[in-house]
Design brief:
heterotrimer, A alpha/beta, B alpha+beta, C mainly alpha, B: alpha+beta, Ubiquitin-like (UB roll), Fumarate Reductase Iron-sulfur Protein, Chain B, domain 2, 2 domains, five-stranded mixed β-sheet, two-stranded antiparallel ribbon, 9 helices, 35% helix, 11% strand, C: mainly alpha, 3 helical TM bundles of succinate and fumarate reductases, 2 strands, 72% helix
Chain lengths: 637, 257, 236
């Protein structure tokens, strides 16, 4: 496989403008002749579907939720970055670009990230025009807050519900196009396979989740905006329904999967309370603006937090990273929390937690100010834990949150299968080995509003593919394959529930391939995962029939994919003999426990290519060439 | 703790459905209500019985997917809480809990506790948006928005579209949902441009979906997980009243392209 | 104009406007009527003069009557249409139902209103048309004649009330029950009409609530005091 990133030539700052000019255009009258399938209706999918329909393309949009408004982008709390420099604090496109590259531990593609920073400013304008109620100052101008990994205030927010408001903006734009008949919406519909005709992505196989009907949809291009694969860990901050099925089955059809080992563990989540736990809840990173993270200095200190005197507290982030303090990037903060807990200084019943303390801020600013800034987060915390965080410090612990890896895409966001475009968290391109806070919303919307609408036309003009024929044998075969898989799942009738397999997989992943990984742990995982998968296919119990609303069957299909995907994740983690960003290999660390990159040997994107059932995947490398920035050791000290 | 559940089971939309009793054993107070149902479902599946179908996704109270009436109150009756965030510590050992789906003609039951709320989507599609295309928008700070307006708009925009307001209303009215969207946009300068058209189009769609009418009982506001205020319904009435007086409704919603 | 009427009479909110606007006028009438009637406690002179004054407004009397009847019809028409829609909106009832904050008044507007409607018909037959619905001895309007200080013969409302409420005890009880329902109806309606007309606001909402409750209480006490006083023999 030859990976051609199609990065435009010329100076970094002019690449995107030059490229936009070089891209072939589709005549406005001809756009209605092209059909586009968009899978997923989160920020990336909804914005792409709406924007493409506005241009005149015929769009079919799919989501597994009962409404496009419920995609998991909605749960993003803190905000969205943009290089507006409204605060006059030294921000610029270049600084946002540099922060993102550095935050990603120099494992992201330079040109993509620069473009992201460039269009970030348009996103804010677009969202304001849609009626997104961003926070305002008394003068009526947009307010900003600061976020991890940055020394400027460039994060725009709508209380603690920024993701919700941005998604509603995109959902409204999408709804408008549905109302106008330019988008045909298919909610409660799950993509189960990708259809290739003549090597190009020309359609998908879907299952209607209410009737169970399996059908195909044909189009001139397929856009995947299906989110990340964090649920491979069972417990994560993802929604219960988030899954990797679309990207995984596309991978099995030939799309390269890049950097699956880059998983982000978010430092501020509510700790696990027991075995019954079905998901983890994130407490926005923005809390670290006013909250101070600490753990007791003494091991096994079981005193109530209020009884631990100031000099027996270890404000470890402030101690280790004085210049960024509590706003150190996510990977670093997470690892620091893990270190404290591994050291026996964790708090709470399980010992897996540290404090996020607002005592000082409440003293300094008053409880009302804190309530105004984070009231809904404090309420959420109280609902889940039954504790009042205005009185006692929050307990937090890292949890799987975001996955930087995803399907490999070129500068046009097209995967290795021509005609298959991948947006948002589902692709790999912009965050390198670690994503900064408030950048996921930015990337999803950048891809959907401002990148794909330009690049997809070029594919239509230069690809010159005939209209797909929905009765072609490729479509029939894909339906048959999906039906066979469904039948198989329903016919096993074993003794173990799908959840038990998923939990066990999650346990393996978290223990062996979580915040810290070693060669030994990964090899162990690579033994246990195939064994578990084998058991799954012999002993899983899926009840009911296909021709009905069958949540257990939906879930079984997703877990079956996770059981395959997890192996690739661990394989990638094992091959990457360095530590970078969210991928921390304990063998590769500096003396003071920081990630130690190996730029000589690993400054590349690892794009894995499927070879068939039971065969090891082939590794393809896209070297990361930095024209503008100098790769340095990340320091937040 | 141990609980007795009476859960609505209904095979599909055409089935009549009935309440079925289940025992929920060894429930831990730290579990969420849905985790309690997960436990019950695991046991059912072990016994070879089909699990209770219910909608849920984010399980942190923001996506608006989860939807069930617990002991006669949507989302379980904890103030400002979705059922996924309602924890079992609010129940007592030995409690009998009746669990039913949202009940409204406009929300037909698909299976057990799962309902079809696409009527809400159609209301938004009728006019719950600002007609701007991607690109070409002015700078975000070009039009200052008074902080109080932005705050009120945000209060309304907090709606998660779960449908609890409809489920709680004795008339199965969707007024709070529609009011939230109309008020959200009408309180911002960007949304005011087409406020009349929006109000009329959304109300027409709401009526045609078969929702009931508002009799100002306040039940919707009381169960709303985002505590969207009844005042927005007054604003909706105002918006609609002004709109039909101005009679600016065009023949068809323009836009697109 | 056509659009406006169509929106008013066909849309849910339009019907609510009709209901609220008609309710608002009826509300004012009910309050005025109560204040007027309380003059009975000032003795025959005052109430009969008041009656004669109203009867004397010949140019206004029938237009007002027609308007009121039209409003009652519109009020009832919109209510019944809305109620039918409301019933249809929930075809399957909940097995367990907790109305949370919905007040009793708010949940019984239609049933209560319908009883009030019947009562109004009865009331008009009884005291306006002087039909013998009270089982009493209303023989002719000449029976109730009063000579005022100018020597003119006018309608003796005072005596009519005494007779009307002292013949059969259940008439008085029915009146008291009916005004009870009316005040319950008004206790919710006075708040709800502001909401339906879009006039509710957080800043004066508590005042509106107090006002609605106070007016409802006033109506109940005011209206029921008359039959009660007659039954107990305070007015003869």
């Amino acid at each position: 496989m030859k990976l051609d990133a199609k990065i435009p030539s010329g100076p970094l700052a002019q690449k995107w403008d030059k490229h936009k000019f070089d891209l072939k255009l589709v005549n406005p009258a001809n756009k209605r002749k092209y059909d586009v399938i968009v899978v997923g209706t989160g920020l990336a999918g909804a914005s792409a579907a709406a924007s493409l329909a506005e241009l005149g393309y015929n769009v079919q949009a799919f989501c597994y939720q009962d409404s496009p408004r419920r995609a998991h982008s909605i749960a993003a709390q803190g905000g969205i970055n943009a290089a507006k420099n409204y605060q006059n604090d030294g921000d610029s496109v270049y600084r946002l670009f540099y922060d993102t590259i550095k935050g990603g531990d120099f494992r992201a593609r330079e040109a993509n990230v620069y473009r992201l920073a460039q269009v970030s400013v348009n996103i804010i304008d677009q969202c304001v025009a849609q009626g997104v109620p961003f926070a305002r100052e008394y003068g009526g101008l947009l307010a900003n807050r600061s976020f991890g990994g940055a020394q400027v205030s460039r994060t725009f927010y709508a209380r603690g519900q920024t993701g919700q408001q941005l998604l509603l903006g995109a959902y409204q734009a999408l709804s408008r196009q549905i109302g106008l008949g330019k988008v045909k919406m298919f909610p409660r519909t799950e993509m189960l396979d990708l259809v290739l005709v003549n090597g190009h992505a020309k359609g998908i196989v879907v299952r209607n989740m209410v009737t169970g009907k399996i059908s195909t949809h044909a189009a001139d291009a397929v856009v995947l905006a299906t989110g990340g694969y964090g649920n491979a860990f069972f417990l994560s901050t993802n929604a219960k329904g988030c899954n990797a099925t679309s990207i995984w089955r596309s991978y099995k059809k030939g799309a390269a999967f890049a950097n699956p080992c880059y998983t982000q563990i978010h430092p501020t989540c509510i700790p696990v309370s027991g075995d019954h736990q079905s998901k983890l809840t994130l407490m926005s990173e923005s809390l670290r603006n006013d909250g101070r993270v600490w753990a007791p200095k003494k091991k096994g200190d079981k005193r109530a937090p209020g009884d631990i005197p100031e000099d027996e507290r270890d404000y470890y982030l402030e101690r280790k990273y004085p210049s960024y303090g509590n706003l150190a990037p996510r990977d670093i903060s997470s690892r620091a929390a893990k270190e404290a807990c591994d050291d026996g200084r964790g708090v709470g019943e399980t010992g897996l937690g540290v404090y996020l303390d607002f005592g000082d801020s409440i003293k300094r600013l008053g409880e009302n100010t804190i309530r105004e800034r984070y009231g809904n987060l404090f309420d959420m915390y109280e609902k889940i834990t039954g504790e009042n965080a205005y009185k006692v410090p929050m307990r937090i612990y890292p949890a799987v949150h975001y996955t930087m890896g995803g399907l490999w895409v070129d500068y046009n966001l097209m995967g290795t299968i021509p005609g298959l475009f991948v947006l948002g968290e589902a692709n790999f391109s912009d965050h390198g080995a670690n994503r900064l806070g408030a950048s996921a919303l930015m990337q999803g919307l950048a891809d959907g509003y401002f990148v794909l609408p330009y690049t997809i036309g070029d594919y239509f003009v230069t690809g010159k593919q005939p209209k797909p024929n929905p009765t072609a044998p490729e479509f029939t075969k894909a339906v048959n394959d999906v039906e066979a898989l469904t039948k198989k799942l329903l016919s096993i009738q074993g003794n173990r529930t799908v959840t038990s397999f998923h939990k066990e997989l999650g346990h393996i992943m978290w223990e062996k391939c979580g915040m810290a990984r070693t060669e030994k742990s990964l090899k162990e995982a690579l033994q246990r995962i195939p064994a578990l998968r084998e058991e799954f296919w012999k002993n899983v119990k899926v009840l009911g029939v296909n021709e009905e609303l069958n949540q257990n069957l939906e879930y079984a299909g997703r877990v079956a994919d996770f059981l395959e995907f997890a192996e690739l994740l661990c394989t990638d983690a094992l091959h990457r003999n360095e530590s970078c960003g969210g991928h921390f290999r304990s063998e590769y660390q500096t003396e003071d426990g920081e990630a130690k990159r190996d730029d000589d040997n690993f400054a590349y994107v690892a794009a894995w290519e499927y070879q068939g059932q039971g065969k090891p995947p082939v590794l393809n490398k896209e070297p990361l060439v930095y024209e503008e920035v100098h790769m340095s050791t990340r320091s937040y000290k | 703790m141990n609980l007795t559940l009476k859960v609505w089971r209904q095979k599909n939309a055409s089935d009549t459905g009935r309440l079925v009793t289940y025992e929920a054993k060894n429930i831990i107070p730290d579990m969420s209500f849905l985790e309690m149902l997960d436990v019950v479902n695991e046991e059912l599946m072990q016994k070879g019985e089909e699990p209770i179908a219910f909608d849920s996704d984010c399980r942190e109270g923001i996506c608006g997917t989860c939807s069930m009436v617990v002991n006669g109150t949507p989302h379980g009756g904890m103030k400002g809480t979705t059922v996924c965030q309602c924890h079992m510590r609010h129940f007592k050992d030995g409690d009998v809990i009746i669990i039913e789906p949202w009940r409204a003609r406009a929300f037909p039951v698909l299976r057990d506790l799962v309902t079809d709320r696409s009527s809400f989507d159609r209301i938004i599609q009728a006019g719950g948006f600002v007609s701007v295309n991607t690109g070409g928008t002015p700078d975000g700070n070009a039009i200052p928005v008074p902080k109080t307006d932005a705050d009120v708009a945000m209060d309304a925009a907090a709606c998660i579209g779960c449908g609890a307001c409809v489920a709680a209303c004795k008339n199965a009215s969707a007024m709070l949902f529609v009011a939230a969207k109309v008020s959200h946009l009408a309180n911002l300068p960007q949304g005011r441009v087409e406020r009349e058209r929006r109000a009329i189009a959304m109300i027409n769609q709401m009526d045609s979906e078969g929702f009931g009418n508002c009799t100002v009982t306040g039940s919707c506001e009381a169960v709303c997980p985002k505590e969207v205020s009844l005042d927005f319904i007054a604003q909706l009435n105002r918006e609609y009243g002004k709109a039909i007086l101005k009679n600016r409704m065009e023949r068809k919603l323009a836009g697109g392209g | 104009m056509i659009n406006l009427l169509k929106n008013l009479f066909c849309s849910s909110l339009g019907k609510k406007f009709i209901m609220a606007a008609s309710g608002c006028v009826l509300f004012l009438f009910v309050v005025g009527h109560c204040v007027g009637n309380l003059q009975v406690f000032l003795g025959p002179e005052a109430i009969n003069r008041y009656g004669a004054f109203l009867q004397g407004l010949e140019e206004l009397l029938w237009p007002v009557r027609i308007t009121l009847v039209t409003l009652v019809i519109l009020h009832f028409w919109s209510a019944s249409r809305l109620t039918l829609e409301n019933r249809a909106a929930r075809p399957v009832a909940y097995a367990e139902w907790n109305p949370t904050v919905a007040s009793y008044a708010s949940r019984t507007m239609f049933v209560g209103g319908s009883v009030i409607g019947c009562f109004i018909v009865y009331h008009i037959l009884h005291y306006t048309a002087l039909v013998n619905v009270g089982g009493g001895n209303f023989t002719s309007s000449a029976q109730f004649e009063w000579t005022n200080e100018h020597g003119e013969k006018i309608h003796d409302i005072y005596k009519m009330l005494i007779v009307g409420f002292s013949v059969k005890w259940w008439v008085s009880i029915f009146y008291i029950v009916a005004v009870g329902l009316l005040s319950l109806h008004v206790s919710h309606g006075a708040k709800a009409m502001l909401q339906s007309l879009g006039l509710k606001s957080k800043s004066y909402d508590p005042a509106v609530r107090c006002f609605a409750a106070a007016v409802a209480a006033f109506l109940f006490v005011g209206y029921s005091s008359i039959p009660l006083a007659i039954m107990l023999g305070f007015l003869k």
